[in-house]
Write a structure and sequence with these properties.
It is elongated, with a radius of gyration of 20 Å. With 146 residues, it is mainly α. It folds into two domains: 1-50 and 105-146, no CATH class; 53-101, no CATH class. It contains six helices and no strands. Helix content is 51%, strand content 0%.
Length: 146
C-alpha cells in the first residue's frame, strides 16, 4: 500500500537522514534502530532550537516556556544595545515576539494535523526498516516505539 508523503514527513525524513548521528551502515537489529530513533527524538524535542520558533526547542514551546525565554532574550539584547551603542545603532533589535502557530505550508497544513502525525510515524518506521537488512534482524527483543 503506497504511503502518501506530505511536507511534514518529507521534512522529517530529510532531518533524520542528514542528522550527524545517522549511521552509514545498517542497524544490526530492530532494537538498535529503535534506540537510535529514541535518541534522535530526544535531541529533536529537547535540544534542537528551531529557527521558525525563534530558536526555542519543541518541548519548550509545548510546555509554554517559549514566551519567558523570548522575553529574557529581549531584555538581554536591549541591555547589550544600551551598553554598546557604537555596535548596535545601525541595526534594529531582533524580532523576539512569540509566534502563535508554526506550519510548513501555511493554509494547506492546518487541516491535516492528525493525518500528518500518523504519516510521520509511518516515515520513521520506513526509515528504520530501510536500515534493517534481513528478516533475522526482526527477531530482536525490542519492538519499534515511535
Amino acid at each position: 500500500m503506497p504511503v502518501a508523503i506530505t511536507s511534514y514527513s518529507e521534512s522529517l525524513f530529510k532531518t533524520v537522514k542528514y542528522h550527524y548521528t545517522f549511521p552509514e551502515s545498517p542497524f544490526k537489529c530492530l532494537s538498535e534502530a529503535s534506540g537510535w530513533v529514541e535518541q534522535f527524538m530526544h535531541w529533536y524535542n529537547d535540544n534542537h532550537q528551531h529557527s521558525e520558533m525563534k530558536f526555542v526547542t519543541p518541548n519548550q514551546r509545548h510546555n509554554g516556556l517559549d514566551r519567558t525565554i523570548l522575553e529574557n532574550r529581549k531584555k538581554v539584547m536591549e541591555q547589550a544595545r544600551r551598553e554598546r551603542t557604537e555596535r548596535s545603532n545601525r541595526r534594529k533589535t531582533r524580532n523576539l515576539m512569540p509566534i502563535e502557530v508554526v506550519y510548513l505550508n501555511p493554509g494547506k497544513d492546518e487541516n491535516n494535523v492528525t493525518e500528518n502525525k500518523l504519516q510521520l510515524k509511518m516515515v520513521l518506521e520506513l526509515i528504520v526498516k530501510q536500515k534493517v537488512t534481513s528478516i533475522a534482524h526482526y527477531r530482536c527483543k525490542n519492538t519499534l516505539r515511535v
